[in-house]
Design goal:
Number of strands: 7
Order of helices and strands: EHEHEEHEEHHEHH
Shape: globular
Number of helices: 7
Helix content: 25-40%
Distance between the termini: 12 Å
Strand content: 25-35%
């Protein structure tokens, strides 16, 4: 049986992969470079970073490594994780009243092959008030989230007016697509 390794400390990725009933181990290397070429189209950045994360690991014969990265794209800007409260508030003001894209790139790697893909979800926010933005950032401190928000938190409850695509992708892990690739591309069967 193949051993699945999740190379992420994200509580959401752990929860979603665990929701499949998959046994997995978390293994995270520190200091993995998450930079990308400025010339890369914004929609390709998450998949590029996921592949760069995978390249930092040595995968054994009986292992399947899962790496992922999520970016939020508004217009031509990529919003990563905010540096501080002011940065988080600025990101939320930029998203307010607009539709943006959440792109998660995933890389599934064994010692013999690699499967890479991206999933995009369109998310529309209502016009957020400064009071709503400040309350959310003060209470939830979304500094570990691309675009400075978690759709599964208060700001998602009160702010998201439309969603086209995978909800779980917006949480940072397109679990349905991961399941499809694990079962069809790698032949794993989770129903046994």
């Amino acid at each position: 049986m193949i051993k699945i390794i999740l190379a992420s400390n994200s509580p959401r990725r752990k929860e979603l992969l665990g929701g499949l009933g998959v046994d997995f181990e978390v293994k995270v290397l520190k200091g993995v470079d998450e930079s990308y070429p400025e010339s890369l189209p914004a929609t390709d950045v998450a998949e590029y970073i996921a592949a760069e994360k995978a390249a930092a690991y040595t995968v054994k014969d009986d292992e399947l490594l899962i790496t992922a990265d999520t970016v939020v794209i508004v217009g031509r800007d990529i919003l990563g994780k905010p540096a501080d409260a002011a940065d988080a508030c600025g990101m939320l003001r930029e998203l307010s009243g607009k539709t943006h894209q959440v792109v998660t790139g995933v890389c599934l790697t064994t010692c013999k092959e690699q499967c890479r893909f991206s999933v995009t979800t369109d998310v529309t926010f209502k016009q957020l008030s400064d009071a709503e933005i400040n309350y959310y950032v003060d209470k939830y401190k979304p500094y570990d989230k691309a675009g400075a928000y978690g759709i599964q938190e208060w700001i998602g409850y009160i702010g998201v007016t439309a969603l086209s695509g995978s909800y779980y992708n917006v949480m940072g892990f397109p679990v349905q697509r991961v399941y499809e690739e694990l079962t069809t591309h790698f032949g794993l069967d989770f129903t046994e």
